[in-house]
Amino acid sequence: MGLIQKDALRTMIINYLGLLLGYLNKGILFVMILSTDKIGLLNLVLSVGLLFAQFSNLGAINAIAKFLPFFRESRDQKQSFLIFNLFFVVGGILLFSAIAVLLQGPIIHFYSEKSKLFVDYYYWIIPIGIANVFFLVFESYLKAIFKNVLAVFLYEFVLRISVTVLLLLLAFEQIDFNFFFILHCMVYFIPSVILLIYLFRLDEIRFNKSTFRLSKKFRRIIFSFSLFSYSNTLGSLIVLTMDALMIAYFRGLSETGVYTTVLYLTSALQIPYKSLFRVASPLVPQYWKERNMDKMQDLYRKMSSISGIIALYMFLLVWISRNELFSYLPPEYMPGIWVFLFLMIGRVFDMYSGLNGMIFVTSKKYKYDIFFTLFLLVGVFSVNCWLIPVYGMVGAAISTGMALVVYNAGRMLFVLFAYKIHPFQWTHLWFFISFVLVLGLLELLPTITPYPIAEVLLNSVFVTVLFLGSIYFLHLEPEINAYVKNGSDFLRKKLKK
Hints:
Blueprint: H1 2-33, H2 36-56, H3 60-67, H4 75-102, H5 104-111, H6 116-120, H7 125-144, H8 149-171, H9 177-186, H10 189-201, H11 216-250, H12 253-268, H13 271-280, H14 283-290, H15 293-320, H16 322-326, H17 336-352, H18 356-361, H19 369-391, H20 393-419, H21 426-444, H22 452-473, H23 478-496
Helix pairs in contact: 1-8, 1-12, 1-13, 2-4, 2-7, 2-11, 2-12, 3-4, 3-7, 3-11, 4-7, 7-10, 8-9, 8-10, 11-12, 11-19, 11-20, 12-17, 13-15, 14-15, 15-17, 15-21, 15-22, 17-20, 19-20, 21-22
């Protein structure tokens, strides 16, 4: 895990810089400058645009992850493979752009009463989707060749600093909301264009006769895999987008704005996990190619172990200080505490499941994943129709949290029975026992200081010392102990110099 730790640390640092900018944008500037209905509009259009991107990639990002290890030895074949996937994506863009146009009538019918702004800006989902789909393809390719940093830097830092600039221009009345919205959509092309230039510089893209030499048989294999497997990446994203769309329909854009803001917070807590997953996931198709199930099992267990610790730790950090953190937001955001709770329950299990999705979608049994995805979509839609009219955004969070637990448990069991590998270790039980004990203890402690920010800092120290400290001193996760030792040795050497 040494290479994984090193690359994960680099991307995690960039991600945290992006998190600070993201909090400045969504947690402060959005709330100060924009009304909740306009926040709901922006987040809803972005969510649907990302959904457009996931649909229109037609599984190309999964195909790149699975098949690129077979082309590592030949630059011409790698170039052919990437160009083939780009043409595949262009076809997806044309198809789903046409579908988006055809859906305009039903969209106007459903949202004209409670979410009219979404109707007015509906077509902007297409350019946002196009920008995102090319970014996803380029990022997936670079991840597969172990070049992670630039894509993370562009999306987490450059994109968010661009949004910050636009928000300041809006705040100082240099632009109006309509122009801000248009520019906000267009800045999503910046990472995609820069990654395209970067791939040309790496000589990974070249348009000539030799770049179209994939055999017809192999094209059919890629085509078949892509169409079946991309449901894997659609599942959880469709669910979260479905939540926003259904809240906007049943309750309006204001409640959608609160929900999507809290959703951003739960996503931000996944940064360490996503950094680790980004550099570990390309190893899975490599192990399938080598048919090395021992290494697959070892990677699966280590990822789940470390991801489980990260998930529980991040949950504790926010939940213990929930009142103080939400006190900085307007009163209408307070119900978001319960949204956070139920969404985070689903996220914790999703993170603990680790690589099960990647193992599943790159295996020979990838076609079976369509059944899990259909269950997820039908289940969330059905429960949302029941709970959102009664409980609003909290109902959506309950259905999504429950669905993520059942969805990941089902896939985990499938991988277990199909390939006899699983992420479980007895030490994981102690993680959860430690989590419950620390949670119970800190819930009983009274407020120490009247200053919210000071209380948050104190709670963070308590959580770190009690939860991570117990895992470290009881040697429950060797990778964490090794990581701490390597870090302390590095600092000691630097201090001696």
